[in-house]
Amino acid sequence: MGNSMGGFMGKGLPSTQMLSIVFKSLYEQFTDEEIKDFDDFHAAILDILTVINSALPGKHYDAPARSEVERCFQEWCNEEDPAKKKEVFVKFIKKIKLSKLDNTTMMTGIITPPAAMAAKKAGEFLPHLSMIKAIPDVIFVPSVTVAALVISKLSRRLHQRSVRSQPNRAEPSNVHEIQPVAEQSTPPCPPD
Fold first, then answer.
1. pLDDT confidence of 143, banded at 50, 70, 90?
2. Which region ranges are annotated with the description Disordered (predicted)?
């Protein structure tokens, strides 16, 4: 069956040729925009990521960190030869990472719908939550699931941001400046 479909559909392009065509068209889109400073460069990179993410359903590429884009911009500006500039751009685009679901998001998406149904059934018997009966299940369960996923994602990002902003406590940054602290002993008790 696969061989017969190959005859109808054609052989297709090898992946390296396909990638070179894609990167060429992306670079042409990139160079069509006038880039004067870092903000223009960053906006052009984000536009390209938007194009990639909208063209590939099911796959989503994360935007690189600002520091990585700044490094690429410096390297791109330092190159005079257009071929070298294109090489810097292609190398940068190839390093962009595919977004992956983490376990927390996956577990939240799996556990929340049955938990929402159980919470709704339990809430129907409480006098203060009797209005919950008026909300149909097809509206209640997806809205609770989406809210739980949003909260999970936001808390994950806030946690990652706080971890990045705190210095590593295991290794102090000023190792050579640490002074030993003398032990303090308690004075003896006075005699009675």
1. very high
2. 160-192
Q: Is 176 contained in some domain?
A: no
End-to-end CA distance of the chain: 102
Helix axes 66-78, 38-55, angle to 10 degrees: 110
pLDDT at 85 (0 to 100): 83
Identify whether residues 24 and 84 lie together within a single domain. Answer: yes
Compute, in degrees rounded to 10, the torsion defined by CA atoms 121, 124, 126, 127. Answer: 180
Cα separation, 30 vs 22, whole angstroms: 12
Here the tokens at position 89 are: 């751009």
Range of the domain at 90: 13-94
Q: Are 74 and 127 part of one and the same domain?
A: no
Q: Nearest 10 degrees: CA dihedral of 117, 118, 121, 122?
A: -150
Contact (Cβ atoms closer than 8 angstroms) between residue 48 and residue 30? yes
Q: Can you tell me the distance from the alpha carbon of 189 to that of 192, in angstroms, rounded to the nearest whole number?
A: 9
